[in-house]
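user: At home tonight, take the chain set out below, taking as long as you need, and be ready to discuss the fold:
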Amino acid sequence: MLALEPPVPGFTTWEAEGHGFGFANATMSERVRGRVKRTVITAVVARAEADFILGEIAEQAPIAHLTYWLEPVERFGRLQEAPSPPPGHAPPLTAPLKEAKQ
């Protein structure tokens, strides 16, 4: 997501474990444990940006069992001022998102 143009202004990732899909591509360890390693990514972006990001992932890095959901965000901000980003990086998002006109 950092390689997209323009880059996504910020996102969060964390490790997770998936349950429920087939184990055809699971490692032996995952089969024994009964769950597979997954990564969860969250990003707060406008709907048009989300559609673009999903399209880019589907085209450039197809991921088996990729699951996603979109939901409205009524408000997004920071309780404290964040430090300035390094030169060339997008500033942190602090204002309400504006939906792209269709």
